[in-house]
Amino acid sequence: MCPGQVWAVDFVEDKLVSGRKVRILNVVDIFRRDALGSLVEHSITRVLATRHLEAVFLRYGAPRVLRRDGGPDFEVKVFQKLLLTWRVQDELVQLRAAPSESGISHPQGTDGGGRPSGGSGY
Known about the structure:
Layout: E1 6-15, E2 21-29, E3 34-41, H1 46-60, E4 65-68, H2 77-86, E5 89-92, H3 99-102
Helix pairs in contact: 1-2
């Protein structure tokens, strides 16, 4: 594996002190463990997420593989069309996979959506 070949994308949710929800879409280069781009909004539509990912592709060049969970945000046609256009392999990972296997890391004790996982974390 080399830098830029395999990226991971994931959503994280949290609540502000005011109680308002905030969503973060993270794009990470697995090899370098660099955050390539984070989109932070109160609401992130599927189209907005796809546009953000395309902007990251334009800035760094598209990866060969994009790892993601099976969340509904990544199952839409606009997202799949982006991957097809850029010839990026879509790689689905299990939510409970260890961060070293998936390249997707969540805060200890959460499931990636800001919700408690019910376990002891990683």
